[in-house]
């Protein structure tokens, strides 16, 4: 018994030592297990203002790739924002509203057909056909691709307040500029017999891409500019106006930007609405010019 009692202090001490070692081991292992959790949590939380800086930087990068917004409703239609490279042609005169086209007729070839399908002005009336030329409006009349009517039949059906004409790319290989412009003027005069009170807008022939322009001797931007100079002479400042649409597509060297077209001539669908907005701006500017003539 005495021997057992004598060993108690030693046993007690051993127990205390074991307990201390266990506590120390627990204290050391807990942080080692928990550290990865805390470390992961810290990396997922941005520094103060960090997230805002990232979002702002991305937004600024996106905005830098977009043109200045057009005077109205530029945020309402996503395609206008996607077409970031098309010139906005911001003008102090603003733009005509889309309801301006309620009594408008657009006459043209496949380029106008693209505008009809993707330009977002379904309230307007269209007379268009692939391959149409100015010589096929009255002299050798062709039919509209949708209605099957000739232009004369279309004009007989209703009165129009505004008439837009975009023709000329298919005529580049025919005759010369004087001949072309004379027939263009005669066509307007014949349309005026049906709609004498309408306002007429002669749209410029759109430029082609540099690759297309250099691929031959007919469809060149030099020829297009020559024809456009002739068309510009048709403006009288009262009821006939020339609208130069080429700046909306210009690559800086007088060509259509390569990204805007798949074949070098026709505009990709997503660029039609921005082009219509440019047309609306240029229409407003033309009407401003009319005011100068009283």
Describe this protein's structure.
The chain has 294 residues and is an alpha/beta fold. The protein has 2 domains: 1-39; 60-292, SGNH hydrolase (Rossmann fold, 3-Layer(aba) Sandwich), CATH 3.40.50.1110. It contains 9 helices and 5 strands; from the N terminus they run H-H-H-E-H-E-H-E-H-E-H-H-E-H. The protein has helices at residues 2-44, 50-64, 78-82, 110-118, 151-157, 177-192, 210-213, 221-232, 272-292, and strands spanning 104-108, 125-128, 162-166, 199-203, 240-243. A 5-stranded parallel β-sheet has the order 2-1-3-4-5, with helices on one face. Helix 6 (177-192) crosses helix 8 (221-232). It is globular.
Name a few traits of the molecule.
Rossmann fold; five-stranded parallel sheet; disordered N terminus; globular; 294 residues; alpha/beta
């Amino acid at each position: 018994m005495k021997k057992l009692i004598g060993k108690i202090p030693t046993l007690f001490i051993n127990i205390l030592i074991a307990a201390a070692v266990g506590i120390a081991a627990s204290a050391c292992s807990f942080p080692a297990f928990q550290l990865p959790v805390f470390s992961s949590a810290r990396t997922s939380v941005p520094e103060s203002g960090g997230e805002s800086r990232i979002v702002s930087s991305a937004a600024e990068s996106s905005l830098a790739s977009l043109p200045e917004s057009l005077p109205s409703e530029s945020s309402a239609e996503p395609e206008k924002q996607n077409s970031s490279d098309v010139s906005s042609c911001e003008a102090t005169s603003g733009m005509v509203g889309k309801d301006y086209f309620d009594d408008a007729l657009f006459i043209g070839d496949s380029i106008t057909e693209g505008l009809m399908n993707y330009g977002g002005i379904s309230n307007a009336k269209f007379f268009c056909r692939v391959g149409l030329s100015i010589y096929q409006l009255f002299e050798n009349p062709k039919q509209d691709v949708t209605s099957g009517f000739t232009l004369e039949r279309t004009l007989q059906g209703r009165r129009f307040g505004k008439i837009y004409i975009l023709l000329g790319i298919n005529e580049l290989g025919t005759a010369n500029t004087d001949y072309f412009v004379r027939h263009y003027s005669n066509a307007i005069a014949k349309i005026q017999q049906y709609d004498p009170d309408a306002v007429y807008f002669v749209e410029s022939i759109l430029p082609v891409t540099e690759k297309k322009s250099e691929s031959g001797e007919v469809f060149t931007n030099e020829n297009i500019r020559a024809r456009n100079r002739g068309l510009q002479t048709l403006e009288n400042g009262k009821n006939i106006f020339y609208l130069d649409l080429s700046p909306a597509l210009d690559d800086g060297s007088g060509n259509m930007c390569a990204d805007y077209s798949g074949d070098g001539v026709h505009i990709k669908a997503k660029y039609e609405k921005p082009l219509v907005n440019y047309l609306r701006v240029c229409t407003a500017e033309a009407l401003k010019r009319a005011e100068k003539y009283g």
